[in-house]
Specification:
It contains 14 helices and 11 strands. The chain is of the alpha/beta class. The strands form 3 sheets. Strands 5-1-4-6-7 form a 5-stranded mixed beta sheet. A 4-stranded parallel beta sheet has the order 9-8-10-11. It has a two-stranded antiparallel ribbon with strand order 2-3. β2 and β3 form a beta hairpin.
Length: 348
């Protein structure tokens, strides 16, 4: 039971029900070349909670006060991926303002769902700009990442990262969108049993993976009873862990905990353990969604081999169905391509 509690403590989301874990989550500062002594230019932007923020241009030094924002900054290619080597500024709930001020950041990144309003007000009092994010769905995570890339001066990277997220999600929709959704219980905590509400980005992630939470609560992190779960009988229990490939022994211990044996999913070992990236509103959440979809709907990811006739028809279509060749440039250009060293004529 202690081992299972330790497993869940690592993977619990940053919310009121896991406030101590949020406090323990180290935040980090990332730096770039020293800022010029000349007075910096500023740009006014509106953050995701409606505040007008003056952002120095360019943004060279950033302090991130949430793991999801640190992940997003790295996904945008603004720093090497080793956050452990960065200067620590304390916990997300109560960071050290003295350490933050000493780092002379151009911008502090915060998120409404994790950081306190008092922290933002204190930063304002120190004359330090802060930008807040507040995504509630997977689509809003994509939009938020794109907005942040623009604020940080790397819109091209943002377009690339979010475009890839959208492409992968579209592929998932093609595979599992028409399938019957699996009824699941996402387990944040076991004692007491905590799950996710229907309006959280995690619940939205479940839907995109071809699942639906049995919990219909308006609360973000509701406590539910085993008796109620037993009445609803989810098809799968879903867990998130930073080491999802080695979490099975701890998850298996559920069957030994009081009361859990009344669930068919426990007796039949229908568990899905995915990356704890699902707990953070950052680009890596798409990987967790894909992983869950593959565990819940494995048949949707089996590539069907082509039979001999289909393969032959694809490689040798009838003459009347073959595309006509045409040149994409004028005869003069074609002649130049054929005579210039290293050039060659191309047909498209």
């Amino acid at each position: 039971m202690k081992e299972f509690a330790r497993l869940r403590l690592r993977s619990a989301v940053s919310a009121a029900t896991a406030a101590l874990l949020s406090c323990a989550a180290l935040t980090c500062a990332q730096s770039a070349p020293p800022v010029s002594s000349a007075s910096p230019a500023f740009r006014e932007v509106t953050d995701e909670v409606g505040r007008t923020v003056r952002v120095p241009q360019p943004v060279r030094r950033i302090v991130s006060l949430a793991p999801s924002l640190t992940e997003t900054v790295y996904a945008l290619g603004l720093q090497d991926p080793d956050a452990r080597k960065k200067t620590k500024v304390g916990g997300a709930i109560n960071p050290s303002l003295e350490q933050i001020e000493a780092l002379h950041p151009d911008l502090v990144l915060v998120t409404k769902g994790l950081n306190r309003l008092e922290t933002v007000h204190s930063l304002d009092g120190l004359g330090i700009s802060s930008y807040a994010t507040d995504p509630h769905t997977v689509e809003e995570i994509i939009t938020s990442s794109k907005k942040l890339s623009d604020v940080l001066g790397v819109p091209e990277a943002g377009a690339s990262v979010t475009g890839e997220m959208q492409r992968r999600l579209a592929d998932l929709q093609q595979r599992v969108g028409a399938l019957a959704a699996k009824r699941v219980l996402f387990v944040v905590w076991t004692q007491p049993l905590i799950s996710v509400g229907k309006d959280t980005f995690i619940a939205d992630a479940l839907r995109r993976a071809g699942a639906v939470s049995i919990v219909e609560s308006e609360q973000n992190w509701p406590q539910v009873s085993l008796e109620e779960v037993a009445r609803l009988q989810p098809e799968f229990l879903v867990f998130a862990d930073s080491h999802s490939d080695s979490a099975s022994p701890a998850v298996e211990m559920l069957a030994t905990l009081p009361g859990w044996s009344i669930l068919d999913a426990v007796n039949n070992r229908r568990f899905a353990v995915i990356s704890d990236a699902v707990n953070r509103p950052a680009p890596r959440i798409v990987t967790a969604i894909e992983d869950l979809a593959k565990q819940l709907h494995p048949d949707a990811f089996v590539e069907k081999p082509e039979n001999g006739k289909e393969k032959m028809e694809k490689e040798n279509p009838p003459l009347d169905q073959r595309p006509a060749l045409h040149y994409s440039f004028s005869p003069d250009v074609l002649q130049d391509r054929m005579t210039t060293p290293g050039g060659r004529a191309c047909a498209h």
